[in-house]
Amino acid sequence: MAIFTVIIGVVLGLCLLSTFLLRWNEMKYKKKGLPPGTMGWPLFGETTDFLKQGPSFMKNQRARYGSVFKSHILGCPTIVSMDPELNRFILMNEGKGIIPGYPQSMLDILGKSNIAAVHGPAHKNMRGALLSLVSPSVIREQILSKIDEFMRSHLLNWSNQIIDIQEKTKEMALLSSLRQISGTESSLLSKEFMREFFNLVVGTLSLPINLPNTNYHRGLQARKNIVRMLEELIDERRRSQETHKDMLGLLMSGVENRYKLSDEEMIDQIITILYSGYETVSTTSMMAVKYLHDHPRVLEELRKEHLGIRERKMAEDPLDWNDYKSMKFTRAVIFETSRLATIVNGVLRKTTKEMELNGFVIPEGWRIYVYTREINYDPCLYPDPYTFNPWRWLDRSLETQNYFFIFGGGTRQCPGKELGIAEISTFLHYFVTKYRWEEVGGDKLMKFPRVEAPNGLHIRVSDMPK
Ligand code: HEM
């Protein structure tokens, strides 16, 4: 009986304490003009619910509080916007009190000149320099042949093997970018670089606690090692005075003398290119393989497009710009994959001053989560939205409509969009013309907070019959 009373007492005490803590946290963030919503627990906020329930958490909060609500996720008081109109407004109006709001660990590890850490004129300069490295003419003249050469060798000898396509597409995204950046030297760099780069990526997504054995610490170390490797490469090139037709060559020439970046800025620019194109390109490629496997009619149509291109060429001829431009259905497959899998859930911004948005007053220093996921499943834009239907993208107006946020929007719209599409298209070209594949089965796929196969996505590959 006494034990029973103690248990009841403890349970009641815990209930009271929880109610007090939740109330106290609500009061702490109670400010006139803020949107409705809940702030969860002190310090942790609603992060656990957000990570556990993912999209359902967002949809439930929207049902209770409307499409703009407050919360406390990933360590910050946050305004979540699921309102397409407001999302567009925020993306279009950077500078007027809104700047990127990416986590501290990401900014520390990617460097102080990385594009997400700079705004105003510094952003304009870094972005200008980057755009001139990946413009359509540079892709046509320099990059496409490097991608083609890389994909051919990367896709060699997959036949009669079980392949983890997640691992292969990750390696592909990194090594293909490295080849574009440092041409011939990339093969010397690649092994050591790859190990450090994977540590760097994990570090950017960790809590910024700089103690030995934390992912953050390992990420900072990895950054140091990558910076050292790139500095050595730059020194080497300066000494040899050879000209190189690759991204580093362009950067060192001041991108044809228009954008003069310091060595530190060049290195941060390179790390930005590698980082930004890594998970986006690899996950889209992996998910395209998954959807193509599950939709034989789409695979048949895609293969027809690529075999048609091959028929016009000799076996060893590389893909050229006209081939790439003719890949209309491939482009549609890539967009439909990005939409249905939602590779990017949204983007983060931060207020630099108190400001009004949609009639709400947002305090200075709050994060804004421009959550664009749900627009991908809007039946008005995409009839029958949960069906994988690439044909819908053959109407090009879908790519130019106001709520096409797969590559972001406004002043920070993805500068690597065409490069990413060219890489995935070239990968698909060699993959579907060389191979058939079936899934080994049983692999789990997670959709949130990132699309990933925690234990890999295994496929059994065989040659396409001649
Ligand atoms: C399928 C592939 C890709 C997808 C889905 C994608 C998606 C996005 C999105 C949504 C943004 C907006 C971020 C924001 O507003 O904060 C963005 C920005 C960016 N992307 Fe991509 N991206 C892809 C490939 C690439 C590639 C290959 C590169 C390499 C050059 C790249 C470089 C960047 C950079 C540097 C930014 C920041 C731009 C700025 O802040 O001005 N992306 N990307």
TrEMBL record:
One of its GO terms (molecular function) is iron ion binding. It is a single-pass membrane protein. Its cofactor is heme. Heme binds at residue 414. Its main location: membrane. The keyword Chloroplast does not apply. GO terms for cellular component: membrane. It comes from the Eukaryota. It holds the Pfam family p450. Keywords: Heme, Iron, Membrane, Metal-binding, Monooxygenase, Oxidoreductase, Transmembrane, Transmembrane helix. It catalyses: 6alpha-hydroxycastasterone + reduced [NADPH--hemoprotein reductase] + O2 = castasterone + oxidized [NADPH--hemoprotein reductase] + 2 H2O + H(+); 6-deoxocastasterone + reduced [NADPH--hemoprotein reductase] + O2 = 6alpha-hydroxycastasterone + oxidized [NADPH--hemoprotein reductase] + H2O + H(+). SUPFAM superfamilies: Cytochrome P450. It is found in: Membrane. The chain crosses the membrane at residues 6-24. InterPro entries: Cyt_P450 (IPR001128), Cyt_P450_CS (IPR017972), Cyt_P450_E_grp-I (IPR002401), Cyt_P450_sf (IPR036396). One of its GO terms (biological process) is brassinosteroid biosynthetic process. Belongs to the cytochrome P450 family. This is C6-oxidase. It comes from Lactuca saligna.
